[in-house]
Amino acid sequence: MTRIGIISDVHANLPALEAVLGELSKRGVERIICCGDLVDYAPWPIEVIARLREMDVVSVQGNHDAAAAGVFPIEGFTEEARATIDWTRAIISSNETTYLAGLEQIHKEERFVIVHGSLRGPLWEYVRDTFVAEESFSSLTRQVCFFGHSHVQGGYVSLAGSVKSIDPHVQLEISPGAKYLINPGSVGQPRDGDPRAAYAVVDLDHDRGRVSFERVPYDVGSVARAIDRVGLPHWLAERLAIGK
Ligand code: ZN
User: Fold this and answer.
1) Which domains does the chain have, with CATH numbers?
2) Ligand 1 midpoint to CA 45 (Å)
3) Distance 177 CA to ligand 1 centre (A)
4) Does pTM top 0.70 for this prediction?
5) How far is the CA of 165 from the centre of ligand 1 (A)?
6) How many C-beta atoms surround the C-beta of residue 54 within 10 A?
7) pLDDT of 107-134, one tens digit each?
8) Which among 44, 95, 130, 159 has most CB atoms closer than 10 A?
């Protein structure tokens, strides 16, 4: 049995990341994997990258990581996102830029695959409904794919030709014969109405296993004040409190 902590969309929110890392260490995870978007939206991109590297976290590249590293065009981003990408680019050094630019878009292991968006569009595509999920299942060559990008905890299961969404409020049993797309939710900017930092803990054992979707509170107010203090768009501070 291997116990793995799954995180995604940290978005430079160091206090949220520290809260999650504290919980993962209590749960005795052997390793941590990340589905991308380490930077943008909050003031600590350098510290977040350093912390993840120090913990040997395997991460894929998110659209924000690629944009901040200058290897992805910023035209498709919203105005707030473009402002934060410019802010991040101005404070990170070549050390962080090289790291972000060098992240894999799809990371494959024996039991699972990690991607930010989807297998078809690793940087951009959102898996937010069963139709898009079905497309991802058709190119999934492992039993499990961990993904992020939507900032919504949960995912999809494919069993006997039908695709259903996963309820993150109950523990998920991984059973042989089924395939899974699992989103741990966002550490640093949840968008499912719950402002607490999201993550998942996965136990994998041959073709069976278990996934628990977790939340942990952190000091949202102090992060919101820090966002305002450094001059990032105010909406980024407001949305943290409502989980949007
Ligand atoms: Zn994101």
Assistant:
1) 2-242 (3.60.21.10)
2) 13
3) 31
4) yes
5) 20
6) 8
7) 999 999 999 999 999 999 999 999 999 9
8) 44
